[in-house]
Amino acid sequence: MPIPTHPTDLLPAYALGALDSEEAAQVEAHLAVCEACRTELRAYESVVGDLALAVPQVEPPPALKQRILTGVAPAPRIEPARAPASPRSSWLQRLLVGLRTPGYALAGAGAILILLLLASNLVLLSRIQTLKRQLAMTQPLPTVVLHGSEIAPQARAVLVLSEDGEHGALIVDDLPPLDPEHAYQLWLIKPDGQRDSGAVFNVDENGYVTLMVKNPMPFKEYAAFGVTIEPMGGSPQPTGPNVLKGQNLTG
Amino acid sequence: MDFRSLDDTVLMAQIARGDASALGELYDRYGRLVYSLALHIVGDHAAAEEITQDVFTRVWQNASRYDAQRAQVNTWISRIARNRSIDVLRRRQARVHHTSIEWGEVAPDAMVADDNPEEETLARLRQQRVQQAIQTLPEAQRQPLALAYFEGLSHREIAERLDQPLGTVKTRIRLALQRLRAILSEENSV
Fold it and tell me: Of the CATH numbers 3.40.50.300, 3.40.50.790, 1.10.10.10, 3.40.30.10, which one belongs to the domain with range B106-190?
């Protein structure tokens, strides 16, 4: 519920990210309708931004800049180098020459038979692997469904887990795109209520996104998963309203 | 193009167009700030490097979403850096015991000179202003402010950590930020 009067006293702590989730959600709701408080908040955000200058300044390693620039630049297209023509004859050519030599014909025929048997075994092995994969695909992967809160009732998400519960991917649909200052953040909620951040993300114009989830612990250790609206870049803990939530029943 | 003459907002627009050289200039301006903050929070050079790389990659990916009306570029970048650093710190604290983080002392010569002495001097003065402003706060306000800023703790968590009433912690943090705002905005308007 929006706070009826201006939450002036809460804005400094909101800028710092020190409010608990409930208070933060109330401030967020008020900010959505109050330009005066948004202006006030920006002043405190600027102060919080300046606090970064209060730490001793340390020069980063010289190579770091280049590493960052290499990481963001599109990788150059590398054409595969054409192998120079070998002046030497290939093993097949040498084998065929050998077969024409009297006395080597029998040994050559034996070698070809062994090669054929090896090839046949490889084909059979490949078929067995394919059948095994198909069999595994008939077992559905564990999933957790996240339902939209009252803020985004139409939104849905599915967290698909690997069979061993070590990896997960999130598929989100119908979440409203956010303004540039905010992002969605996925929270992995432990049984004691502590939260780990799993991902910070935005959705496309259709409200859709798929992404890999970072999980400090196996997924079965978490009781639930939720998504909140946070300032751009994410927050150390939830501060904004919840938009998606689902219980983990896979454990 | 000589990016050094561009202000931050124009530089961001250039980055949004996919100009990696503009990102290089932004790194020259704020790389040290991001790295220093990350190092101060996580206390580990390797992790600070990783965080710095991650921050500038996010800036590159989200430059088109940056809105100058909402925040200055340095505020925006330092917020991303702080959030990422606290995220890393929290993951580690699940395994290692907490180590206390404090505000830096006023250190006039902490920043080394680079190839733009005028800009360097302004940056050093700005840093001194912020450090001196923090030094004017009573220790009772500095301590909860440090826990909130460097560790991302909530009012409630700070009250538990310091064994102080929740209301006291709330008041001290609010007073601290109000005072800093008054001092820094007064100096900005001079």
Answer: 1.10.10.10
Q: Test A54 with B103 for CB contact under 8 angstroms.
A: yes
Cα(A171)–Cα(A211) distance, rounded to whole angstroms? Answer: 7
Query: Chain B contact for A209, CB < 8 A?
Result: no
Write down the architecture of domain B1-99 according to CATH.
Orthogonal Bundle (1.10)
Chain A contact for B3, CB < 8 A?
A: no
A234: closest CA of chain B, how far (Å): 6
Measured between CB atoms, does B110 come within 8 Å of chain A? yes
Reported ipTM:
0.88
pLDDT in tens, chain B (190 residues): 677 888 899 999 999 999 999 999 999 999 999 999 999 999 999 999 999 999 999 999 999 989 888 888 999 999 999 999 999 998 887 655 445 567 766 554 444 445 566 777 777 888 889 999 999 999 999 999 999 999 999 999 999 999 999 999 999 999 999 999 999 987 555 4
DSSP state letters, A49-106? HHGGGGSPP-PPPTHHHHHHHHHHSPPPP-PPPPPPPPSSPPHHHHHHHHHTSTTTHH
Of the CATH numbers 3.40.190.290, 1.20.120.550, 2.60.40.200, 3.40.50.80, which one belongs to the domain with range A143-247? 2.60.40.200
